[in-house]
């Protein structure tokens, strides 16, 4: 494999334009030149960064490409050069697309398209539409993808750019290959090759050759595909495209294996694997390991094949690549069958079928069932083989029916596109209107999806990142800083006397103040600083690269945002902030620790009326009280200091009580009633939560057995749920109390289920078999994935009180709660609203068909 020299030498410093010339044929040389110009403060800094990023992308170094392009985009934000700005957005979109981030790619490319159309940049518009099409196709909007490609092709024909036309035709060929229209796909690929200059290496030509090779492999003609793969390999080598070269090497190994040339196939598989491991090409590593295993199978070396397939399976699991997992499991089952290990083979067939069923991909399920039936027949298990074949036959019928429907839709779609193109020859404007009308419905769905994603990540009032996005950004920033031994400062900002403003001027004025503070902070702080809203009047900051010496400057910038008074509803208001900082790694290395310590520093600044405060060890609460509390907790259960309080749940429609939730309390003989927030974490850390949780379950069941027809809900800890005897503990509690299983509801959190989804699903099915109800507590604060949770046998989602708090005020939470209720009902789940404290909140939940409510409005926790 041809690798670029790490010591590329230049003579006199060449101008940046030389790098542009070299970009197509020598991307490594272009990158080296561009990096020498990418110095802050020098002329052409942004252009050099963008060029270095594009060269890194062509070399397959996506991480470096994204870093350089993002920095360039920041420099282009002034709007003085819309062409460069659009080209950089286009490059960012391509990188994100190849990394599998289709949502991010669509956002970047649609911004680039808006710039191109607004400034009438026709060439850029053609490039962007060509790049957008694969993104739309991957997200299921094939109609929009075809529309974008045909518009791109029309623009590029008008510009008389044959190389650009070939690129669009290549994408059209790849799309029709996925649709199963191989004849049309081959026609587009060959037409693209005829448009290209055959005299030298060309990236589009290489991709066309690769796509033609793939097409012939799908048609079962490896002898026709091999020369195209070899031509593509030569081109990628000449271009210095390491990613493309490694991919073609792996594809050639698979092709040569099918052609019976095992030695050559082994050589190419080993080359592909070496390149994938050297350059971190994760998907290619999985492909190369699979190809290597297939070669060993042909060579009769079953142990070596087993090792390769096991490594491929591990890589596929790491990348959550469902297709690769299924293929690796089938390959392993075949090897174990040949080695006389039918028990292992059967287990791998079962796992492959489970993965295929969870993915919902019927062709994969059919392939596994057919292989399993053949295996059963070889083992003499004819009844099992017949059962699997019967299931496979039914599934095959469904697949054929769906294929026929899909082909019919494709024919109809193609007819509409052809008709639109014919009309375009007469009236281009009429064709554009028809195409736009065709995509309107899909565009509305896409827009609605993006709006919901925005609501989930950004604060509706200020437009700042919310607590979820802030935590994600902080996690990434800390990881980046740790890799270079850098520092990160986290700030917590609180507005002094904000409650007085709300009480005197009203909540509308308070909201106006929060929005103004957010705008001023974003204006005075550098773009590299993340400003987020945690909730209420609390704002958060991430300052990358800031150590102790930089905090005074950051604090001065923050304070400057409050120098001028605010005018709210005609009233002049002076607002003062309290600001606290913590620095990683000095004070903590993880997000929760940093936020907690920055919060302690903020409270010191508020208490002592300081401009800002930095965390120091003296602010940390004394550990002795925690140790004393933990020691006392060890004997609390034996001394009968623990007790249960019960908070009622009411049917929303008529306020009839339907259940009570058991809540643990600790009545200490000296300290009085201790908050669960203080002792539950101690019980979790020490392991006492298992014994305490068992006692809670037994007591709650015993108490509920005395109630007439009312359920009891019991919270289960992660440690309890993960224990192998948990099911037996529940059965014992029911048997000893005499409580009917249907009157017991177990409350879990999303994170508990996601730690080991398969094991959790199996345990929940066992609980459901007893008749016990299952609820997800605090829904919305964890994974919040209804699509993923539908695999679990659940009854109820309890919406966290943080979302209920502001639902009556047309807030961001209103849309989130409404969406959760509608989607939960569509999945057959009930919904409980937690933390209902006002009549307005209850009325909102009633009007939106929330099934039940819980909160201080209707009932506080109390002992029985």
TrEMBL record:
Q: Where are the TPR repeats?
A: 166-199
Question: What are the entry keywords?
Answer: TPR repeat
Q: Which residues form the EAL domain?
A: 626-864
Any one Pfam family here would be: EAL
Q: Does the keyword Signal apply?
A: no
Lineage top rank: taxon: Bacteria
The GGDEF domain is annotated at: 486-617
- What name is this protein filed under? Diguanylate cyclase (GGDEF)-like protein
Lineage of origin? Bacteria, Thermotogati, Deinococcota, Deinococci, Deinococcales
């Amino acid at each position: 494999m041809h690798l670029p020299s790490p010591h590329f030498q230049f003579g006199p410093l060449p101008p940046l334009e030389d790098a542009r010339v070299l970009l197509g044929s020598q991307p490594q040389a272009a990158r080296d030149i561009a990096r020498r110009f990418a110095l802050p403060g020098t002329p052409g800094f942004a252009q050099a960064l963008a060029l270095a990023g594009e060269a890194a992308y062509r070399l397959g170094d996506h991480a470096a490409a994204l870093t350089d392009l993002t920095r360039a985009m920041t420099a282009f934000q002034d709007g003085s050069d819309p062409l460069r700005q659009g080209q950089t957005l286009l490059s960012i979109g391509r990188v994100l697309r190849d990394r599998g981030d289709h949502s991010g790619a669509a956002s970047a490319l649609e911004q680039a398209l808006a710039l191109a159309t607004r400034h009438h940049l026709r060439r850029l518009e053609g490039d962007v539409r060509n790049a957008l099409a694969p993104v739309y196709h991957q997200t299921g909007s094939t109609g929009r993808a075809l529309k974008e490609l045909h518009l791109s092709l029309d623009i590029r024909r008008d510009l008389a750019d044959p190389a650009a036309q070939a690129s669009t035709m290549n994408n059209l060929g790849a799309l029709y290959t996925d649709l199963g229209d191989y004849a049309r796909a081959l026609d587009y690929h060959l037409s693209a090759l005829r448009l290209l200059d055959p005299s030298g290496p060309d990236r589009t030509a290489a991709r066309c050759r690769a796509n033609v090779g793939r097409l012939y492999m799908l048609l079962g003609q490896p002898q026709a595909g091999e020369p195209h793969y070899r031509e593509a390999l030569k081109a990628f080598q000449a271009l210095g495209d390491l990613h493309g070269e490694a991919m073609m090497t792996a594809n050639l190994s698979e092709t040569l294996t099918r052609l019976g040339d095992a030695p050559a196939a082994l050589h190419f598989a080993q080359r592909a694997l070496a390149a994938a491991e050297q350059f971190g090409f994760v998907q290619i590593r999985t492909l190369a390991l699979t190809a290597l295993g297939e070669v060993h199978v042909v060579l009769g070396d079953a142990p070596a094949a087993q090792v390769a397939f096991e490594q491929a399976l591990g890589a596929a699991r790491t990348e959550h690549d469902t297709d690769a997992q299924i293929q690796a499991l089938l390959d392993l089952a075949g090897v174990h069958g040949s080695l006389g290990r039918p028990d292992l083979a059967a287990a791998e067939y079962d796992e492959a079928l489970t993965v295929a069923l969870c993915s919902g991909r019927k062709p994969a399920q059919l392939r596994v069932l057919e292989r399993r039936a053949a295996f059963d027949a070889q083992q003499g298990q004819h009844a099992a083989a017949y059962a699997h074949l019967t299931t496979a036959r039914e599934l095959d019928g469904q697949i054929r029916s769906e294929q026929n429907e899909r082909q019919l839709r494709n024919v109809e779609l193609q007819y509409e596109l052809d008709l639109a193109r014919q009309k375009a020859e007469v009236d281009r404007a009429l064709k554009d209107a028809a195409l736009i009308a065709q995509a309107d419905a899909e565009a509305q769905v896409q827009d609605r999806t993006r709006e919901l994603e925005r609501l989930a990540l950004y604060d509706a009032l200020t437009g700042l990142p919310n607590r979820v996005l802030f935590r994600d950004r902080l996690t990434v920033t800390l990881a980046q800083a740790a890799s270079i031994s850098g520092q990160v400062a986290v700030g917590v900002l609180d507005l002094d006397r904000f409650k007085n403003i709300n009480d005197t001027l009203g909540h509308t004025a308070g909201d106006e103040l929060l929005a103004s503070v957010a705008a001023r902070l974003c204006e005075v702080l550098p773009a590299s600083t993340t400003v987020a809203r945690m909730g209420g009047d609390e704002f958060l900051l991430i300052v990358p690269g800031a150590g102790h010496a930089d905090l005074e400057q950051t604090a001065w910038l923050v304070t400057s945002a409050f120098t001028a008074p605010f005018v709210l509803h005609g009233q002049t208001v002076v607002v003062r902030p309290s600001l606290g900082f913590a620095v990683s790694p000095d004070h903590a290395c993880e997000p929760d620790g940093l936020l907690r310590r920055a919060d302690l520093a903020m409270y010191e600044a508020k208490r002592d009326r300081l401009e800002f405060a930095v965390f120091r060890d003296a602010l940390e609460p004394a550990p002795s009280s925690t140790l004393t509390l933990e020691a006392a907790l060890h004997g609390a259960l034996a001394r009968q200091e623990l007790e249960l309080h019960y908070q009622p749940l009411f049917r929303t429609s008529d306020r009839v009580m339907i259940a009570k939730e058991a809540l643990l309390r600790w009545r200490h003989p000296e300290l009085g009633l201790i908050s669960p927030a203080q002792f539950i974490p101690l019980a979790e850390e020490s392991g006492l939560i298992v014994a305490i949780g068992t006692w809670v379950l037994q007591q709650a069941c015993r108490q509920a057995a005395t109630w007439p027809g009312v359920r009891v809900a019991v919270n289960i800890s992660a440690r309890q749920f993960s224990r192998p005897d948990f099911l037996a503990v529940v059965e014992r509690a029911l048997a000893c109390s005499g409580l009917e299983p249907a009157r017991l509801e177990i409350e879990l959190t999303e994170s508990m289920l996601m730690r080991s989804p398969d094991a959790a699903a199996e345990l929940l099915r066992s609980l459901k078999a007893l008749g016990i109800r299952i609820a997800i507590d605090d829904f919305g604060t964890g994974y919040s994935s209804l699509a993923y949770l539908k695999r679990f046998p659940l009854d109820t989602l309890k919406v966290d009180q943080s979302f209920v708090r502001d639902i009556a005020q047309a807030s961001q939470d209103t849309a989130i709660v409404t969406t959760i209720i509608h989607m939960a009902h569509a999945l057959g789940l009930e919904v409980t609203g937690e933390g209902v404290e006002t009549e307005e909140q209850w009325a909102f939940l009633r009007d939106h068909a929330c099934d039940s409510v819980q909160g201080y409005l209707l009932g506080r926790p109390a002992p029985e």
